[in-house]
Design goal:
By secondary structure, the protein is α/β, with parallel strands linked by helices. The protein folds into 2 domains: 2-120, Response regulator (Rossmann fold, 3-Layer(aba) Sandwich); 138-239, Arc Repressor Mutant, subunit A (Orthogonal Bundle), CATH 1.10.10. The protein contains 8 helices and 12 strands. It has helices spanning 10-22, 33-38, 56-66, 80-88, 101-122, 168-178, 187-194, 204-217, and strands at 2-6, 26-30, 44-48, 71-75, 93-96, 138-141, 144-147, 152-157, 160-164, 185-186, 223-226, 230-233. The chain has a 5-stranded parallel sheet with strand order 2-1-3-4-5, sandwiched between helices. A 4-stranded antiparallel sheet has the order 6-7-8-9, covered by helices on one side. Strand 6 (138-141) and strand 7 form a beta hairpin. Helix 4 packs parallel to helix 8 and helix 6 (168-178) packs across helix 8. The chain is elongated and about 55 Å long. The protein binds calcium ion. Calcium ion (CA) binds next to loops.
Length: 241
């Protein structure tokens, strides 16, 4: 597994590289945002937010426009707002300095496992799965079609089906809501299902992802916030029926 390490502090970079190599990863290290954008992204990106040439958030956004590679943000900024922004920009997880190496490896394994599971079901290597019944894999909610096997989401607008470019987390969240359209999912259920049961981040993260999905669906009415409870998915009343 190849890690792209984006870290400008030479002592942190070299000790982290050594530890990662010792744990069996291959590591490509760059020290600036521009180098990160130009580099081979590998299987997972570890991105320090405090870089000399660019803001880490801009690097995150730039990577996200070309790739769904898992991104783990490494930050010394512990403020909640920064954390939310990091995730809203498409990072999959974050660690706050100082962090334990074991914690970091656990997070790398978690995000890459999820990404590989998504890629595996989308790839041709899984043609043997074609025998199975597809009905559980495809959820249709009005003009919205979610295919869990291929991780594709399409939305029909004016008779034309367009594919939505969702991040892995956005896909999981939308897919979870679509399991039971109209039913309210609590924030806790969403966090446990889409992130991890041991997630300790702010629940505002859910709002950030909901906002991202609404934007991509082009109508905020798709996901209704139920005050004090959570969210539900439903077909917007205007323009689709
Ligand atoms: Ca730094």
């Amino acid at each position: 597994m190849q890690v792209l390490l984006v870290e400008d502090d030479p002592s942190i970079a070299s000790s982290l590289s050594d530890s990662l190599v010792g744990a069996g990863f291959s590591v490509v290290h760059v020290a600036t945002g521009q180098e990160a954008i130009d580099a081979d992204l590998g299987d997972v990106v570890l991105l320090d937010l405090g870089l000399p040439d660019m803001d880490g958030y801009d690097v995150c956004r730039a990577i996200r426009t070309v790739s769904n590679v898992p991104i783990i943000v490494i930050t010394a900024r512990g403020e909640e707002l920064d954390r939310v922004l990091g995730l809203e920009l498409g990072a999959d997880d974050y660690v706050v300095k100082p962090f334990g190496f074991r914690e970091l490896v656990a997070r790398i394994r978690a995000v890459t496992r999820r990404a590989h599971a998504a890629a595996a079901v989308a790839g041709p290597a899984n043609d043997d799965r074609d025998d199975r019944d597809d009905s559980d894999d495809i959820v249709i909610v009005g003009p919205l079609r979610i295919d869990r096997r291929t991780h594709r989401v399409t939305l029909e607008v004016a008779g034309v089906a367009g594919e939505l470019a969702l991040t892995p987390k956005e896909f999981e969240l939308l897919s979870f809501l679509a399991d039971d359209p109209g039913a309210v999912r609590t924030r806790t259920d969403i966090v446990e299902h889409v992130w991890d049961a041991n997630w300790f981040g702010p629940t505002k993260t859910v709002d950030a992802h909901v906002a991202g999905i609404r934007r991509k669906l082009g109508d905020a009415g798709w996901i209704e916030a139920v005050r004090g409870v959570g969210f539900r998915l439903e077909v917007p009343s205007i323009g689709t029926e």
